[in-house]
Amino acid sequence: QVQFVESGGGLVQPGGSLRLSCAASGFTFETSAMSWYRQAPGKGRELVGTIYNAGLATWYSGSVKGRFTISRDNDKNIVYLQMNNLMPEDTAVYYCRTPQYNVWGQGTQVTVSS
């Protein structure tokens, strides 16, 4: 079945960096767009960015553009989220997903705090 396993979260100081990974299975990864979402405490789930199937095109929300970068390894079925210059407002649980399936993983917690 379709499955996503996110990892790489943790506690980081403001201005720091983290790289999240998402291992996907159960569908044709290389032809699927992949998105990262996040959900902060008390807020709804927010789309952070999307990478399209060949990895040649990406889209980012205005709140992360210029700081976050999405990449993918189609041989390993993994999508990455490189997060630089992290700010306290980036604190959230981060999830990955392909839009064609309404399936979510467990997410990975990112906490930005001094």
Short summary of the structure?
The protein is built from no helices and ten strands.
Describe the protein's topology.
Elements: E1 3-7, E2 10-12, E3 18-25, E4 34-39, E5 45-51, E6 58-60, E7 68-73, E8 78-83, E9 92-97, E10 108-112
Parallel strand pairs: 2-10
Antiparallel strand pairs: 1-3, 3-8, 4-5, 4-9, 5-6, 7-8, 9-10
Main sheet: strands, sense, barrel = 6 strands, mixed
Order of helices and strands: EEEEEEEEEE
Helix content: under 10%
| pLDDT averaged over residues | 95
What's the alpha carbon Rg, rounded to whole Å? Answer: 13 Å
Tell me about this structure:
This protein has 114 residues and is mainly beta. It is built from no helices and ten strands. It has strands spanning 3-7, 10-12, 18-25, 34-39, 45-51, 58-60, 68-73, 78-83, 92-97, 108-112. Strand 4 and strand 5 (45-51) form a beta hairpin. The chain starts with a strand and ends with a strand. The mean pLDDT is 95.
Features:
114 residues, mainly beta, 0% helix, 4-stranded antiparallel beta sheet, 6-stranded mixed beta sheet, single chain
